[in-house]
Amino acid sequence: MILNDRKSIEKIDKSNMLGLIENFDRQCKEAGCIKIPSIKKKQYDFIILSGMGGSAIAGDILKILVEMDSSVPFIVHRDYGLPGFIGKNSLVLAVSYSGNTEETISAYKQAVSRGATVCAISSGGEIEKLASTCGMPHIKIPSGQPPRCSLGYLFFPLEKLLYTIGVIKQCSSEKISNMALSCRENYGIDKIQDNKAKEIASLVHNKNVVVYSGNTLSPSALRWKTQLSENSKHIASVNYFPEMNHNEIMAWNYPDFVVKNSVIFFFYDKGDNKRVKLRMDLTSKILGVKSLNIQKLNSYGKSTIERIFSLIILGDWVSFYLAILNGVDPTEIKEISYLKKELSLVE
């Protein structure tokens, strides 16, 4: 089997994404030591994180934590500019791994012009230059890898920042690092038997993938969708309970060839609302009658952040193995690169 053959994998994985996934534990440790700037500790009306793609996932996780620990509205903004309600009493987190994401640059400039408190995080690029010019705080993180492989660098400095200003409780980068190390042992190439990541990748190969979760694991579910898209070049979709029950449950009838060729994942978390869990159980029962391929995955870990990362890390491994089965380099993103090049030619 190709997923057990490191040499065969290396021929496809030309840019060594495997190395980045294998060393995610080290990234988390390093990220926990990154120095953060001091920003004003006050009662903000809104906190908004501007970011796209791999850079925005950190915001999705932070949003769950802020909703648990704070009364401050927290928004993840995936667009140009900023909503009209963002102003002087807002905290804007501008997140761009490269520092050159045009949507985030647009949001950054608007935040400065409106007098908001702004803190940026990037590995360099235009965002760092703007922060220097404006005299605004900037968190510098290591460069040289795809944004989607830099979640530790993007998340933990921002988590520490929000903790220092009293918005959320402190998280442990060491616990996530230890979890990533354990996952490497359980999901890595050298684990031949009972390797859940390899089993799932083989199961969904040439299948339509759909992921459902409640609110707590929504960052994990979205991460699966985006990693399968970018790493595996594989179409996947995501939706959330209870909203799914108000529309999409009826979609599992047609087109017949899509329905029959799908694998549906239900992400369960012990922090879910008990009615959400009931809805998931009933929905899986309803869809099961139609002989659909349903897979239930449970998060694990004591804290919410551990449980979110437990499925994120599994999904990263699954997306890597699925890329290998699809015969594609998981790092290559030629369509995205072409799109950015063409956009740069137009003001």
UniProtKB/TrEMBL annotation:
SUPFAM superfamilies named in the record: SIS domain (SSF53697)
InterPro entries in the cross-refs: Glu6P/Mann6P_isomerase_C (IPR019490), SIS_dom (IPR001347), SIS_dom_sf (IPR046348), SIS_PGI/PMI_1 (IPR035484)
Pfam families the UniProt entry points to: bact-PGI_C (PF10432), SIS (PF01380)
Record's keyword terms, sorted: Isomerase
Superkingdom in the source lineage: Bacteria
GO MF annotations in UniProt: carbohydrate derivative binding; glucose-6-phosphate isomerase activity; mannose-6-phosphate isomerase activity
Regions that span the bilayer: none
Keyword Endoplasmic reticulum: no
Domain SIS: 35-186
GO terms for biological process, alphabetical: carbohydrate derivative metabolic process; carbohydrate metabolic process
Family listed: Belongs to the PGI/PMI family.
Official protein name in the record: Bifunctional phosphoglucose/phosphomannose isomerase
Annotated organism of origin: candidate division TA06 bacterium ADurb.Bin131
